[in-house]
Sequence to fold (131 residues):
Amino acid sequence: MPLPEFFMIDAAPTPVATFSHAAEVDGWVFLTGQMPTDPDDDTKPLPQGVEAQTRRVMDNLKIVLDGVGLGIEHVVQVRVYITEFERDYDAMNQTYSSYFAEGKLPARTCIGVTGLAVGALVEIDMVARRP
Fold:
């Protein structure tokens, strides 16, 4: 098995911890969970509400995917973490699902958590596969 490659994407948000934006081995690309931070200015306040934060997180993930030469259509698995599960689950789902073609939803786990970095309401990570 080849050694993994690690990617930092210039256009992606500044990491909030010590990690690579993505790592790849054997055509499998693992994207670190993204926060709803502005990729151009991480000092800006987070978007208000779970819908706006989900959109920012998904847009940030698309930036990382694009940076490794992939698109949302290559995503095979997703994990979603939300801090207000019962309150925000439906709204997050509606926003999240708008990013995928009808009938082309990746496998997914959604987990309620007690807190996320930078005070976010939602964080999402992904696994993609090269064609």
Q: What stands out?
A: The first strand starts at residue 5 and ends at 7. The chain has a mean pLDDT of 96.
